Amino acid sequence: MAGLFAKSASLSLINLVIFLYLSCLTANLTASTTTTSAVKTPSRFATKLIHRDSALSPYYNPNATIKDRAISTLKRSRARLACLGAKAGFSSDDDTRAGLVAEDSGAQFMANFSIGEPPVPQLLTIDTGSNLLWVQCLPCTKCFEQTSPIFDPSKSSTYNPLPCSSPYCTISPSDKCDPSNNCKFSHTYFDSTKVAGLIGTEIFTFETSDEGISTVPNVVFGCAQDNDGYNGQPSGIIGLGPSNISLANHMGSKFSYCIGSIRDPNYPHNQLVLGDGAKIEGTSTPLEVYNELYYLTLESISLAERRLEINPEIFKRTESGSGGTVIDSGTTVSFLATGAYYVLRDEVRKLLDGRLEKVEEPGVPSALCYKGNIREDLTGFPDVVLNFAGGAEVGLDVESAFQDYGEGEFCMAVQLSPEGSDLNVVGIMAQQHYNVAYDLAASQVYFQRIDCQLLDD
């Protein structure tokens, strides 16, 4: 079947979108905080991102097959979707809203950094669905297993607890102070996982993509000492959400990430850039924040240079807050609401049925799956193009639109949102080979198709 779609290869390759689960949390943030001073931070730092299936990851399983990883990816993505939907459904004044879920389902990419002086190495999950940066600290009432040393603030010369008198320790209905008058925090996740402790400030040192280091002083973070139900191996979470407590806003409200091939978990050029030096280039689309999630205005979907007959209302958030299109770094595959998914699926079937053998994949109910090889049998297959407000277009090539399940099978990597859900999610797989840049101050997201290696310092 090689070259089966060569005639349709005249399609223009268009730019691709979307994006980043771990902290599908909706947490009790009993302390609202921001940076504590006007200390100047670096205008840019870039750090390598580690894929969860990489040999450098604590989740790495050398015995896992391609099918094992694919099914695990789908299960995590569905769990993440459920959390996103629950978080999106919270009323804007609900004081329990804060994040997603604390288990490993959102841990798609992680980054190395060090905290304190002397520096203590840590491994954190990157999550655009969370806000607070937190790490596990000693002494802890309940500790979870982690691969890095647990940070002990009493041994750092640069740690400072945040006093309750600080304007950054906002008054809340619950008890926010410890006996020493230090500011406390508590996150309760959708899965009932809880992390709690003290808010403090500390110096963070990041490994850069060129094997150098970048130091950021006075970062506000949660020192988690009472942790119940957390199953992760990383030390905590770097929240890149829209709140003023997130590291993204601490660094100047701009950040970008570039993800190479998901097929290769050891791809060495995945990177995150924070600060004014983030690469803000490409085509842009308006960014909307609702219940601390990032929403985009998806207007239509095209295939073979033809816009599909999908009611655009399917992609919009309703007045009650349901539905809409979220871009998320913790969800691997993408999801479409019923009215959009079946239209796309049927158009794909018209191109493949009768040419490739359709198969049922037990681990992927309702998915469209075929026997074959993505790279060989889908040569020339047209991009699935996501058309966003403002003219931004993101093209899903065959490696972004389909997922390898091993044993000579592959399935569509755009899945059906579960019954009862009208949420659309652009997952990280759809963002492959793109530099995705967020300008929070300007409320814009930029997409630029690029070889991530070209962005290395």
Describe this structure in words.
The protein has a single domain (6-455), classed as Beta Barrel (Cathepsin D, subunit A, domain 1). The strands form five sheets. It has a nine-stranded mixed β-sheet. It has helices spanning 66-88, 247-250, 338-352, 374-377, 398-401, and strands at 24-25, 44-48, 50-51, 109-115, 120-127, 134-136, 160-161, 184-188, 194-207, 213-228, 236-239, 254-259, 271-275, 283-290, 293-296, 298-303, 306-307, 325-327, 334-336, 358-359, 369-371, 384-388, 393-396, 402-406, 409-412, 414-416, 424-426, 434-439, 444-449. The model is unreliable at 6-41 and 91-103 (pLDDT under 50). With 457 residues, the protein is mainly beta. Residues 109-448 form the Peptidase A1 domain. It comes from Malus baccata (Siberian crab apple). Keywords: Aspartyl protease, Glycoprotein, Hydrolase, Protease, Signal. It holds the Pfam family TAXi_N. Residues 1-31 form the signal peptide.
